[in-house]
């Protein structure tokens, strides 16, 4: 039964139906049927929203997100998590917020939005520590280890995962499996790195421990009769056996992983297994067979939209073709890798833009709901305060992202030319690390003042968040806009930073684009972000256009 087939059911009856749908969704999740489970959770969320069951709605959204991740629908999972957090904030359920944040980090990580994932986990860590909740802290450490692993920070990943392992005693089977499998996955990448660095003893110890972890994880997955866990664990186990030079066992395990994934429709796991089968052939020196397998894996990865996996396969194909002397093919895949790298960056920028719109809608809806509850003699003052909070950045006093998203379309609609620039403080993390966050905050305030003082009243300067600023230059052509951006860059570089803190030097990089029509605004923002990225790669302290 779907929520749309019910017209305003009695609250108690609807709550019972929500609970029943959630139970069914959890049963589907536990047997690895994520498509059915996510749909049941979606129905529960709709029904809970209709009948005003906020707790049920949040639980359903979290369940839906958890299962969409396994289906590769990462952006939809992030959206569900953000909606769940918004509901839980109205309930002041900090523990529930922390649970959702640990889930949200995974699709953000899958989208390549690693900083956003770590920010979500940092917020979750603060909540877990404040509540003194060991189980919540376990999941924060576990997920933080996974994100650092995806970023290539293997030592940090191991540190967080081992912290989580030390806390897993007494937790449920799912938690135990998750940390054991993640440690095995991390070792797949850590062992080759240790060997390459000449740390043979460390590599042997890492491999020995990892084989023990995944052996226990596989037993837990099979006892639970959970095909997704069994498939992902077999793949890791196979890669570890290959690193132990037991190639026959490796082939057998990875093929079993692929077969399970194919039967149950786990597309990303099937693509990964195909890639790893070919990787094992490369390790055995069977380059021709490896190339054949990698080409098949590449087709699957492209079909499934697995851009990071497709990049890695192009890299491996380039190396394999080089080994067999086919340098033209090697060069072709090398170029394809770097083309996908740029595409991946653009995809992340586009996803950020879409999510920013969704977050704005959530924040706006939440603000409107809060304003509707203000019923007192101080209504006018309270309303003004909320409006200011909705449109002003508290640190710098500049307009914030929400205001910019409302103002930019108005500037485009005025009819004159509009150029947008995204400015980012160069090496800002180093400022915080060396001088402290107090100095970092003051740097942002001074940059905001420099930008604001060096544009016209009709222009827009806003803080997008973090160390990013937006400049909207109204009624100027592209060359004039570039000159104005160069002036802003130079003014920031020339600011007397030494007076704020001895040894301090700060610059910004900017990316510039022109907006030709209102419908071109999202594309112009993505282009400005790309030009900013190019300015950073070209050495920073410059304007990319």
From TrEMBL:
Coiled coil: 350-382
Keyword Coiled coil: yes
Coiled coil recorded as keyword: yes
CC annotations in GO: plasma membrane
GO biological process assignments: cell adhesion involved in single-species biofilm formation; negative regulation of bacterial-type flagellum-dependent cell motility
Annotated GGDEF domain residues: 416-545
Protein name: GGDEF domain-containing protein
């Amino acid at each position: 039964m779907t929520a749309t087939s019910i017209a305003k059911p009695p609250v108690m009856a609807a709550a019972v139906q929500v609970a029943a749908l959630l139970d069914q969704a959890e049963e589907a999740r536990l047997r690895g049927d994520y498509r059915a489970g996510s749909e049941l959770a979606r129905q529960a969320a709709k029904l809970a929203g209709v009948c005003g069951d906020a707790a049920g709605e949040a639980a359903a959204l979290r369940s839906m997100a958890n299962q969409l991740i396994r289906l590769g629908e990462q952006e939809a999972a992030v959206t569900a998590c953000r909606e769940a957090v918004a509901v839980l904030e109205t309930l002041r359920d900090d523990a529930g917020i922390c649970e959702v944040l640990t889930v949200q980090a995974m699709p953000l990580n899958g989208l390549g939005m690693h900083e956003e994932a770590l920010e979500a986990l940092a917020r979750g860590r603060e909540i877990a520590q404040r509540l003194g909740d060991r189980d919540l802290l376990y999941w924060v450490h576990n997920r933080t280890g996974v994100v650092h692993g995806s970023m290539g920070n293997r030592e940090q990943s191991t540190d967080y995962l081992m912290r989580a392992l030390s806390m897993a005693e007494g937790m449920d089977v799912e938690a135990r499996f998750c940390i054991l499998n993640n440690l095995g996955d991390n070792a797949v990448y850590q062992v080759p790195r240790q060997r390459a660095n000449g740390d043979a003893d460390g590599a042997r110890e890492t491999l020995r421990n990892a084989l023990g972890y995944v052996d226990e994880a596989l037993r837990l997955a099979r006892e639970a009769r959970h095909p997704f866990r069994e498939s992902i664990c077999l793949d890791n186990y196979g890669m570890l056996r290959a690193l132990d030079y037991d190639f026959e066992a490796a082939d057998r395990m990875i093929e079993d992983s692929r077969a399970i994934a194919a039967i149950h429709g786990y597309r990303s796991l099937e693509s990964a297994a195909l890639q790893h089968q070919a990787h094992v052939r490369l390790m055995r020196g069977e380059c021709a067979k490896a190339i054949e397998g990698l080409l098949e894996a590449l087709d699957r990865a492209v079909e499934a939209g697995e851009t990071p996996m497709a990049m890695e396969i192009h890299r491996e194909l380039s190396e394999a073709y080089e080994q067999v002397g086919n340098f033209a093919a090697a060069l072709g895949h090398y170029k394809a890798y770097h083309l996908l790298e740029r595409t991946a960056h653009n995809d992340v920028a586009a996803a950020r833009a879409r999510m920013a719109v969704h977050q704005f809608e959530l924040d706006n809806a939440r603000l409107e709901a809060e304003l509707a509850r203000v019923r007192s003699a101080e209504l006018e003052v309270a309303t003004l305060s909320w409006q200011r909070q909705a449109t002003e950045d508290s640190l710098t006093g500049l307009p914030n992202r929400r205001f910019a998203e409302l103002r930019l379309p108005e500037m485009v609609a005025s009819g004159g030319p509009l150029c947008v620039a995204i400015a980012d403080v160069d090496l800002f993390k180093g400022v915080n690390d060396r001088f402290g966050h107090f100095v970092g905050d003051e740097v942002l305030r001074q940059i905001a003042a420099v930008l604001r003082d060096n544009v016209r009243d009709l222009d827009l300067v806003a803080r997008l968040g973090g160390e990013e600023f937006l400049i909207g230059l109204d009624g100027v052509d592209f060359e004039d806009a570039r000159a104005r951006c160069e002036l802003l860059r130079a003014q920031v570089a020339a600011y007397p930073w030494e007076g704020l803190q001895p040894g301090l030097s700060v610059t910004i990089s900017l990316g510039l684009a022109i907006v030709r029509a209102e419908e071109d605004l999202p594309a112009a923002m993505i282009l400005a972000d790309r030009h900013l990225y190019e300015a950073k790669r070209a050495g920073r302290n410059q304007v990319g256009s």
